[in-house]
Amino acid sequence: MSISKMDSLYKEYTQVRFLDVNKEQFIYIAHLLPSCILVMSDGLLDSEEWVTLKQLSKILGDEFASDDLGTDEKEENLMLIYKAEIRYLLKNREKWEPKFLEALKEYLLNNPASVEFLNETLDLFAGPDADAGPDEKENYVKLKKELGL
Questions:
Q1: What's the whole-model pTM score?
Q2: What separation in angstroms does the CA of 105 have from each of 16, 20, 29, 95?
Q3: 31-89 tens-digit pLDDT
Q4: Contact 125, 38 (CB under 8 A)
């Protein structure tokens, strides 16, 4: 059986970043990248966009924290990891964006819940009801098409 693009990306990324997260937690980092691409469409990360990204990391931290810490500590720890990875990915888009998008595209073929999550988060930043600029709207359409959403 061949290794998936997400498995390969997980191995490469966690080795480069010395990141101690399990594969499921990493996949949610991958789910955040399209939103990061959208918010950086205009080259700026405004405070409202950063607050929304931090809220997404908190939600993911709450949901995917490991059980070896107390409830508050594990949520806080994972939230901090997600926030750090968002910052890293925003600064290193050129290196990681194509790899993440390819892995996500393949992953979405067999994961309808992930399709729903990505549609919701992309819509939050640049969907029909969002107050998005032309650059965000353009990237929104491009990402939806590229990921098969």
A1: 0.80
A2: 22, 24, 14, 17
A3: 888 888 887 777 766 677 677 776 766 666 555 554 554 455 655 666 777 778 888 88
A4: yes
Q: Which long-range contacts (CB under 8 A, 24 or more apart) does 2-8 make?
A: 4/103, 4/106, 4/107, 5/102, 5/103, 5/106, 5/107, 6/30, 6/103, 6/104, 6/106, 6/107, 8/103
Counted residue by residue, the chain has a size of 149
CA–chain centroid gap for 38, Å, is: 11
Report residue 35: phi and psi, to 5°.
-65, -40
Alpha helices, DSSP H, located in 65-111: 71-91, 93-108
Q: Give the amino acid at 75.
A: E
5 in Cβ contact with 103 (< 8 Å): yes
Percentage helix, strand, coil for the chain under 3-state DSSP, each rounded to 5: 75, 0, 25
- Token pair of 103, please? 């892995």
Distance CA 148, CA 142 (A): 10
Q: Scan for tokens 């988060």, then name that residue.
A: 121
